[in-house]
Specification:
Elements lengths: L2 E7 L5 H15 L6 E7 L11 H9 L21 E4 L2 H10 L3 H4 L2 E3 L21 H30 L1
Parallel strand pairs: 1-2, 1-3, 3-4
């Protein structure tokens, strides 16, 4: 059975597609690409049908992360097929937990930076959209720092299912 992870930010053109691309690369490198499915969405539908922000694509490309992306809005019905819903900031976390049809579904929602032991108390990945390229680089650094811990947690869940 495939383990499904969905990254969620506001518009699904900056942070969540970046997290999707980075985590998918980690999953592939770990040899779990057949067992783990990775995608992303936004809490809002403002950019539905659009591609990722060009700055997101540029930063990802420079760091060796391929991404083909079309923005979409997260739907509450998806909770039933997802194993883990990864919010990029506390606002997304609250919005997703409100959308969750059950307490079990709400428990699937986690903050990305909670998987980074060096993150400290501020677990938000700041929105780079209104800033310059530096914000996108910072976003990538935060996503990469959390991806290793997230991969370990997902691997444990996948192996636990197989046992």
């Amino acid at each position: 059975m495939t383990y499904r992870v969905c990254f969620v930010c506001t518009g699904n053109i900056c942070r969540s597609p970046m997290a999707e691309a980075v985590f998918r690369a980690h999953v592939t490198e770990a040899g779990l690409d057949g067992a783990v499915e990775v995608d992303s969405a936004g809490t809002d539908g403002w950019h539905e049908g659009e591609g990722a922000d060009p700055r997101t694509l540029s930063v990802l490309e420079e760091h060796g992360y391929p991404l083909e992306h079309t923005a979409r809005q997260f739907r509450p019905a998806w909770f039933g097929r997802l194993d883990l819903v990864i919010a990029l900031d506390a606002g997304h976390l609250r919005a997703l937990r409100r959308l969750a049809p059950t307490a079990e579904d709400a428990a699937k929602v986690r903050l990305l930076r909670s998987y980074d032991p060096g993150a400290g108390h501020d677990l938000d990945v700041p929105d780079p959209y209104y800033g310059g390229r530096d914000g996108f680089e910072e976003c990538l650094e935060m996503v990469e720092a959390a991806s290793e811990g997230l991969l370990a947690a997902v691997r444990d869940d996948v192996e636990g299912r197989a046992a």
